[in-house]
Amino acid sequence: MAVLLETSKGNVVIDLLCDDAPRTCLNFLKLCKIRYYDHCKFFDVQKDFVCQTGDPTNSGDGGASVFGLLAKDDEKLRYFEDEIHATRKHDKIGTVSMAPRGRNGNASQFVITTREGAVDALDGTRTIFGEVSEGLDVLRAINGVYVDENGRPWQNVRIKRTIVLDDPFDDPPGLEALIPSGTPPRNEEAEDDRLEDDFDVEAELNKDASVVEEEKRDREAHNRAVVLELIGDLPDAEAKPPEEGLFVCKLNPVTTDEDLEIIFSRFGKVLSCDVIRDFKTGASLGYAFVNFEHRHEAEAAYFKMDNVLIDDRRVHVDFSQSMHHLWKNFKRFGKNGGTSEDHDAAEGKVSSRGMKRTFQGSGRTTFELKSNAMGHISGGNAAMAMAEDKRDRDRDKGRTRDRSRDRDREHKRDRSRDRGREHKRDRSRDKDRKRDRSRDRDRDRDRDRDRDRDRKRDRSRSRDRDRDKKRDRKRSRDRDERDRR
């Protein structure tokens, strides 16, 4: 009669005392057989005292006996009675006993003593049903783990699985339906802030300095991204610039976007190529953004075109880190970004200011705005493009002015209507108040009249009682005088 517990610290064999506690041993063996204890944590480790486990919820408040499980979680059968013997004591390390919720409150939780000597405080209150025969070194390792002030280990210690080595009891009816075909999956706890049992502390401590530094930089970068999101400089902390985009700088002012598009098109399909210009003069600012259809095309252009001579200037090529287009997309569609429906909505549509919106890749989540307002596509006629842009802005201002007048007019009309409604509502409210006050006065008058009537009746009854008492006293005196005579 023994059970093997495979824990994250090693294997422990428990010999069961079936003669002293048959019902408790039956419960323990059958729970092990249905893999009830798999993935249970040692959630309470009190150094040199006991370690407690057996609760699938890992909180200390859960667990049920096999009898309760067979009875469809009947609360009356969730617990079973104690089997305490005066001769059995917690007199050595590795003594296994139940962890009841009270008298006759045994379910599935149990404790194992970790003190080398006796643990007298548990004698007479717990059902002892086994002792550790193998794996005392594992038990000492569990006893030595780091815990918080509540005894919960900082690194989880789990029962990975249980193996029944010898079972003298027959299976209760219905138990076979509860036996799983394999090890049940572990339920991940979303709010668990502890290191998992498979976390290698030694490997973490012996990690190479370069790896530690790289992880530190990644964490710092993420923290900075979170701060930028909070202050509004990034649409989302996890947002990343498109991997298909390149940044080209140190350009000759005479280089146009058409020239760059022709040069970079040898590496793949160029979706957009924009030389950035001054919005007033239209002069080139010496840098541009080139966007390809696929990432490998951008990588090939990056390796081949860096430090290349273009129009007597050696240009520098790097991957773009601009979030401009992501910001535009974020303002339209939120953190989810553009979808295929957004792509269909934007495909082929041109705004009033000549901004053609094209979707960067089928099913992608970013919009790429390709502008011809500054003459990037139409041959570089910046002056004409600027004049057209000015006309568009003036027309937009006029429309904005008209809309503002319409809003003011509608606002005045709405306010007049609101005042009329409020006046009617106030008059109706005043009528209701007057009617309520009149009803209250009538009610108070009736109540006062009834109270006066009750008082008069009470005074009349009091006078009658006094008159009766006087008459009775007089009769009594007359009777006494006759008796004396």
Automatic annotation (TrEMBL):
Biased composition (Basic and acidic residues): 387-485
Family affiliation: Belongs to the cyclophilin-type PPIase family. PPIL4 subfamily.
The PPIase cyclophilin-type domain, residue ranges: 10-164
Domain (RRM) ranges: 244-322
Region entry Disordered, spans: 337-485
Main location: nucleus
Organism encoding this protein: Ostreococcus tauri
EC number: 5.2.1.8
A Pfam entry, by short name: RRM_1
Class of this enzyme: isomerase
Sorted UniProt keywords: Isomerase, Nucleus, RNA-binding, Rotamase
Catalytic activities: [protein]-peptidylproline (omega=180) = [protein]-peptidylproline (omega=0)
Name of this chain's protein: Peptidyl-prolyl cis-trans isomerase
Gene Ontology molecular function terms on file: peptidyl-prolyl cis-trans isomerase activity; RNA binding
Biased composition, class Polar residues, residue ranges: 359-369
Subcellular location as annotated: Nucleus
Gene Ontology cellular component annotations, sorted alphabetically: nucleus
Cross-referenced SMART domains: RRM (SM00360)
Task performed by this protein: PPIases accelerate the folding of proteins. It catalyzes the cis-trans isomerization of proline imidic peptide bonds in oligopeptides.
